[in-house]
């Protein structure tokens, strides 16, 4: 720690080379540059006050041009350039400064912002200091000479931000007795003796445990933030790790300390530890510290996010930590993964460029891309939930939901990455997880071998040893809620859809998922029903151009599954309508589910012409019930009428579902009174259908 010394005036630990003149390095009572300037001004002001003949020359806002005149002066003599030869010995510095200033003015066009040019020439990764005036990363900055807790990139920036900074620009008072107790301990944390530094860190931790608020105030008042940030730049791994742990606790307990860490450039220091450290404990702790810092900085969250992405390449850093921790060998790696994924989700939420950086990630040493990395984590569900059970808290569950959230963001918002997930076999991984962990209705075995294997597995798990990890009902539904929407985008690709259908029994799987969600009482189930129905529809009617004959064959090959599922969906959705008070109240998820199920029934009738009846199903009857239900929205009734006509026109039996034709005619007549011009043809087709099937009771 020889590169850090404490100023004798402000008692702030600062970088020796950056904040002190060389003459002060070996001084037993060193004074930093800021305090030296304040001392010099105090002495000058004292001399002015003591000398009665002293006069201060004021600039009365007489603006002079910075650029010399290009024409001759009024006297007619040529413009003279100051010369060092003609200057008095005591004025040579002034003359040299004037010459340099004039040369710079001649070379720089009027109105050019030199600070902006300098900042633009600096690579983003070097803009690692935080200017509190600009609220962004800058390549260089100086501390405020009074409070020593913020940095400014220029004097002009400090002046413009003074009104905002002034209320906070003051020293934090610390009692003399408390400072006398704390200062030796803080100084001991810099000791090269491991035992001495360890005792010092332990003492600070004990003070934190006794009274976190008082300890945080004292730590901040003695500028422990600067000291600990310098600790993080040393090569002593143990001191770095201890400093990280304590600094994270201080950030959690004090919003002021969190602000000081940001303002003093601590974000860049923490990001450097996530990528450059040779000890994974430090990498994991640094990620935790950054996450805590972002959570605590509510005022500058957006600006801080921009600093992380634009200046510090945080997306790549967090993904690198996630890659190294993806082995999930212990709870340290589990926590590192949780924090990394949570930070990535926050960056995706607050910055538009985060997604493109996430999608373009590729590890230099392993060659992993974002598809292979996230797919591998999705497949580690057993490992994650075993660690989740061992820790006793929901850390593993949160990690798995975060990973699924990242996959969903990339797949839905950046479709160019879908080939990466196809190559990593994400569809197969998701299908296996749904069957094994999400408590859906088991798929019936197709072959004798599958039946024998299922019986053996059941016997071993029931009577000998169950090696599987069982999710609770809530965990299962929350996982299923995120897994189902991941499959749907891949069904728009013909090869992926064919693989899903043939290799993973996709239609039966989608049906089982949908019926499981329909039967569930978990709070998430109403929202999931729409996504599960969407998956089922895409499975039976692929969302890409295929001949109608292929759709017809696809429906007939699975007609029992298709009709049974649709019949169940219509019944459940109709039952939910009984609790709706009026058609105007039908704006919820249950009404949307009914409308989508009715549309799907019409599509199946259109493409699956002349479908054989399936025992226990009567979709035309359900559609007639939709027409006559008083709480169903009128638009849904018109859709049900069109679906019923499709069933009749395409060779499917509707006679058994019409029931009392007279009652149906009454409903149709009521709808016709409010029919639009484009709905009159539909009314006529429905009346023709009823006329053909007219009888007292059918």
UniProtKB/TrEMBL annotation:
Entry's Gene Ontology molecular function annotations: zinc ion binding
Location of region: Disordered: 63-83
The keyword Transferase is annotated on this UniProt entry: no
Family annotation (SUPFAM superfamilies): ARM repeat, HIT/MYND zinc finger-like
InterPro entries named among the record's database cross-references: ARM-like, ARM-type_fold, Znf_MYND
Pfam families according to UniProt: zf-MYND (PF01753)
Protein name per UniProt: MYND-type domain-containing protein
Source species, domain of life: Eukaryota
Domain (MYND-type) ranges: 131-169
Key words of the record: Metal-binding, Zinc, Zinc-finger
